[in-house]
Amino acid sequence: MLRDLHYNFGTKLLNTIDPELAHKLAISFLKYFYLSKSTLPDSNILKTKISDLEIMNPIGLAAGFDKNAEIFNPAISLGFGFTEVGTITPEPQYGNKRPRLFRISEELALINRMGFNNIGMKKIRANLSMEKKGVVGINIGANAKSINKILDYSKVFEFLASYFDYVTINVSSPNTENLRDLQKPENLEKILVNIQSLNLQLKKRLPIFIKLSPDLSFRNIEEILNAGENCAVSGIIATNTTTSRESLAEEYTSVRGGLSGKPLLQKSNKILEHIAKEKKKKTILIGTGGIFSANDLYEKIKLGASAVQIYTSFIYQGPRLLTKLKKDLESLILADGYKNLNEAIGSSLKTKRES
User: Fold this and answer.
1) For the segment 184-206, what is each residue's pLDDT rounded down to a tens digit?
2) E-assigned strand segments in the chain
3) Mean pLDDT score of the chain
4) Does residue 348 carry a catalytic annotation?
């Protein structure tokens, strides 16, 4: 109870100060002061897999929070089923000019134009001395001023992939100029061919995921799925942030950057549902975008996601959110007559086909 009070007070306090400073303080707290496992064991009802990786619950911490691989173990200890670090680039980079992170509290949303700010792959590898407590993925990207962005992905993969459990190819951030051009099939296939060639050289081949933009057309998505299937990609993360401002007040329409949070839910779900209908059976889906409740989470599971990732809701609600999400999700699964989460995956699509 006392721990929950501390978390609640701390989260409320952080949400009153500059958002980027608040993020830095949260990372420092988790890195230096959060030391031990303090959550109750997860129910077996929530146990699932992403590719061949077993996780105790389907809730992951999305990339963008732990940019420099500093707090992946504390994240697992908080109760996340898995976590994803990054985005990490070959060379260190400051990112875009400040201010570059904006709260829209009335919409439970954020706009960020951080620009892959990170300390670079070499410094990050020097920090990777701790043994992982759970499943940890790495999200990799390209430097903004790189003359060969396609090659940047291979550089980071070769240097860091063996330290992690899966790799996400980030070609969908709107905050690095021309990065989204890498979602074009001809560019994406070049990245994936290089990555899979390096992947074959590892002692254990890693699952490869592609993180997609929610602003793609269905035709674009189908082209990307074909490229991914040609290159033996394990799965898709749907979706990254959006440049759309459809539901926001006029004052935010000119703020550049990627929008995340509650306004993204239905947009990301439409993409998730389309991918679920078009993908091959073996392709794993991770749903992200707009999750603030167990109902939001469960909707993505029923649309075909094997797991989900959260970010903005964690910023606004803090660690207490995890306990509530898991408890309520278990109730929803049992109320629908399923024995476990795996039975519920894709159930909405099955119902639509039957009707």
Assistant:
1) 889 999 999 999 999 999 999 99
2) 48-50, 53-55, 59-61, 82-88, 101-104, 109-112, 135-140, 166-170, 208-212, 235-238, 258-261, 284-288, 307-310
3) 91
4) no
- Distance CA(62)–CA(59), nearest Å, equals 9
Distance from C-alpha of 98 to C-alpha of 96, rounded to nearest angstrom = 7
How many Å separate Cα 54 from the centre of its chain? Answer: 17
Question: Do 129 and 98 contact (CB within 8 A), yes or no?
Answer: no
Which tokens hold the place of 48?
């699932």
What digits encode the pLDDT tens for the residues 201-231? 999 999 999 999 999 999 999 999 999 999 9
Helix (H, G, I), strand (E, B) or coil at 239: coil
Of 40-49, 84-93, 147-156, give the lowest mean pLDDT range.
40-49
Q: How many CA atoms lie within 13 A of 16 on its CB side?
A: 6
The one-letter amino acid code at 153 reads: Y
CA distance 238 to 220: 14
**pLDDT tens digits, residue range 129-162?**
888 899 999 999 999 999 999 999 999 999 999 9
3-state secondary structure 65-81: CCCCCCCHHHHHHHCCC
Alpha-helix residue ranges (DSSP H) falling in 231-344 = 265-278, 294-302, 312-317, 320-335, 341-344
Catalytic annotation, pick one of 173, 213, 293, 348: 173
Instruction: With beta carbons less than 8 A apart as the criterion, state whether 192 and 208 touch.
Output: yes
Per the structure block, which two tokens stand in for 33? 């002061």
